[in-house]
Fold these 3 entries.
Entry 1:
Amino acid sequence: MSLDNFFYPKSIAIVGASNNPRKFGYELMKNIIEGGYRGKIFPINIKEEEVMGFKAAKTIKEVQEKIDLVIIAIPAGFVPQVVQECAEKGIKNIIIVSGGFSEVGKEGKKLEEEVVKIAKENDIRIIGPNCVGIQNTEVSLNASFVMRALPGSIGIITQSGALGASQIYMATSEGIGFSKFINLGNACDVSIPEAIKYLADDPQTKVIALYIEGVSRGKEFMEALKYATAKKPVVVVKAGRTEAGMRAVLSHTGSLAGKDAIFDAVFKQTGAIRVETLKQLFNVARLIVEQPPPSGKRIAIITNAGGAGVLSADECAKHGLILTELTEETKNTLRSFLPPIASVLNPVDIIASANMEVYRKTVETVVKDPNVDCLLVACVVPTFLGMKPDEHARGVVEALKNVKVRKTVVACWMAGKTAEPGKKILSENHVPAYSCPKEAVYALAKYIKYLEFKKASKNME
């Protein structure tokens, strides 16, 4: 059964909808309305006559019209009764944001089992419980109690609600957008494997970003990853790597973390891109959606500081990228406009006095070199000699607009807050801009490794 009714509902009922800003039901209602949802909205509140301008019903049964999706935000003890009412009304899709289930112990687990039993007997699908909800930016649906994500091409699946919310905040601050956001919480019904397969088939999603703590269906999980990585990249953070972390996972979502070595083997066998941190998750994912895939490991580096070139070269060697030899034609062209003290070798050091025009000419020249598969452009001092903090970035953007050849280009602007105007220009023009060479090269290397895996898999077919 498709999950489309969760993400493309024509009508939504919010059980626990409230006029009280301190209630989850208030935040859900507000986000659905302000997010721009265009379907019908039915607030359910046993005490309120009206919620945010919408007439409220006391129970689900009182709503005479068809309801595609129900979101439940009431104390856990009342949830089974509401699920039963949904069953009697023929509703097939429920999101339970309420906590107090298997994540809190035996009594909560009994409640969750009761909910699952009712759902299975009536062919009801459930996301949650203990989750923050879902989002679908394609149709302006924010069915969660966290801020609306920017539209984009990254589909995100997360077990942790609060951490999932922080991922939206982090991504928004970097200008990164999502296609769909799915927080599964305890995943009592809709599972991680099912969500992965759904996003694998979703035309709005170009890359799947996954935060997991543990899985209960190991074989299905592996099969879902295989299915997905054959279609698009999957970038994953797996928490609970240590004994202490595994104990924390059990108390958080009630799931078993499992031994990390097993997960590591699964990721390697399926081609999933494993990263260590949420920042790395977005660093890799944004590169995949914003740039064409690298055709190989040969990389060129352009920088206005020799030290940045050395750091970048070290990172390339560490991750198996090849510092390519530029052609004589490229080197001669660079000599024609760079000062004598600049280096036309790789890394190309255009020195600190390089302005917007020098960045433009250098990028245009190097990116056209047939020996270059991908390019790292670094800027260390963006305001030297009275230069504007964004002009180096504008030079890069202008160069890429001028050349016909499309290659993978990443940038690294290394001047803290002073670098922000330049990073903003680059990001707005789909050039991933990182804070240091380590971040940029790491993202490139992870993407290349996935492409190599996919190529090797095709050759074995």
Note: Residues 301 and 347 are 5 Å apart (CA to CA).
Entry 2:
Amino acid sequence: MSEVGVIGLGVMGSAIARRLLAAGHRPHVYDVRPEAVAELEAEGAVPAARPADLAGRLVVLSLNSATIVERAVFGPDGVLSGDSKGTLFVDMSSIDPASTRDIAERAERQGAAWVDAPLSGGAPGALRGELTLMLGGSDEDVARALPVLRILASRTTHLGPVGSGQLGKLVNQVLVGCGFAALAEAAALVRAAGLPAEQILAALTGGRADSALLQEFFTKFATVDLSPTGRVANMVKDLEIARDFARTRNVPLPMTTAVSELHRWLVARDHGASDNAALMLYYTGGAEA
């Protein structure tokens, strides 16, 4: 599909739109914040006055909750408020699997197709075209989406029917959320000892503690670098979705619960919009350095 729409121009959605621009697409973009649309328009994107203007395209959704996804799709000015023929939704939001299946079934009844494609790699990965995507949907719909998704991602895995991608993302977020908490504690030790973060990272590289998470975030945490790569509030949402799903299967998640509460502590102190490195504020008494 030559024309691509992007709905939701937060940290991730903006990075997705910029990656598409860099690849030669001219995405049609929509956000409830006119200033976000204007910023992307200045870089070459086509502004949309309402989600309905994006019908008939491959529409990437990058939104914060199932309620917002539902509104963008089915609301009075939603994508499916008019002629929905040919619309293929690629939902890169992180929402619960049950809501994904429900929304997808309703969209399909109106002639649209759905692929859930939650991501790992954050805004930096999107800008480089190196996201990891977990896909749910029919073979046919995933095949239609792949030419665009391969612009954004270096790894795509089709896990099964609609909702499967969101289940894969839950596993990812449990590992990443708990990993962030471990990084924050390790970085707090480094800061307390006055050790150079870059040298500690070099010492750990190649050992059992090494990981993509360590390489990307250790010095960011140790220096309390709050430049945006993700939001604390989104991590709380994702970990709570994982906990809710686990309860339906009677699976205990004690570590995930503790990490979720640590992130919730930050939200309660008005750091919900802050980067995940704000976990360091727990150890620095609120100081940013």
Note: The CA atoms of residues 1 and 144 lie 8 Å apart.
Entry 3:
Amino acid sequence: MSQAPNVTTINPATGEELATYETISKDQVTHIIKKSKDAFREWKKDWKRRTEILQIVSQELRKQSNKLAEVATKEMGKPIKESRSELIKCSWAMEFYADNGQVFLNDEVLNTDARKSIIAFEPLGVIGSIMPWNFPYWQALRFAAPSLAAGNTIVLKPASATLQCGIEIENILAEAGVPSGVFQTAVGNSSVAGHILDSDVSGITFTGSTEVGIKVGQKAAGGLKKCVLELGGSDPFIVCSDADVDKAAEGAVKGRFINCGQSCVASKRFFVAKNVADSFIEKFVKNTEKLKVGDPLSEDTDIGPLVNKGGLETIDEQVDDARKHNAQILTGGERIGDKGFFYKPTIVGGVTKEMKVGYEETFGPVAAITVVEDERNAIKYANDTCFGLGASLWTQDLVKADKYSRLMESGMVSVNNVLVSDPRIPFGGVKKSGFGRELSRYGMLEFVNMKSIRYYDQLVRTHFVE
């Protein structure tokens, strides 16, 4: 059998090579998973020890945030200030589950015909984690924090673009006292993910594109593995007729352009009520043009490069398609420079469903605006998509906010703010944005065995059917 090719990471700001990594073999993956299974036997036993270690991990993430942030910025182009914020959020997640995980997993007592009935929550075993590059620390640790707290062990396959970030996570956890085998990073190309899927892990969590997610789900189902999929999104941003336009226009910049627009829950399709459209668009454009694009290691930079040449070409193609369909390029709409993968923050007006920016996921700094007659049309257009991850709604009428939020076909809705993940709130989508939840108690319960236990004094007459 031929050796899988090595993986070379590229700095997207310069186009220069960073490092080359050897892809591990199927036998090596098998060894890693066996080691993880062995570690699981002890790790699952001691809740107090797990809590103490997760608290130390939280502290170490904060202490080493500058060093770790630089690794992420060099590998995938995120502005350094955003990379640091990502590490602080990871620290919060670790602390949150260290503080609350035991409460989330307390036995539930039920009233039945038995003398005593409980539901016990027990870890499943080894969980394979296949993660993307856009939030290389947060995506991995927002799953790892609750799963480790529950007593599971983890094998992480980081994205090929951010392999060093994945290695750094394992290093940090080891330094914090996580026992050998409890958290391991499997390095290499996509073949490594395939080996994990084919192995006897107890569950799979995947974050990435819908196309790949479908294949992961099929593989997981074929092996009867519990699976959570967090996939693509084309999140609507609805500006109602009574919205605070200044706040909405400010939120639009944050919601669309954070991480260079490379976020599943970034606001992507903007539906604006006709009576406030001119004012909103003017302010949105003005705020967007203030953003500084440049060296992501600079503290002054707001937007760095896209992750790779392919991402840059896709965004360029989507904007060109909008031009051909007579959309208005209100600002931006072009590449920047000949070094690295930079693209101007772009706002496209007059968007229709026929345009790629109107129905595809735009994974880059491009906002697509459609002016609508009223909020009912906005909801109709917002739901007219195969995706259903998140949405944001801007209105000063809380009765209207409640009504329209419930009409949105999405896993999450944020009113008068952009959508962000939060350890306290379940995160996930519907339709082709995936299934299952991360974060909160509900995310923790995705990878536990909910075991029903009933205690009887004697045989009780009952119907002996399933």
Note: The radius of gyration is 23 Å.
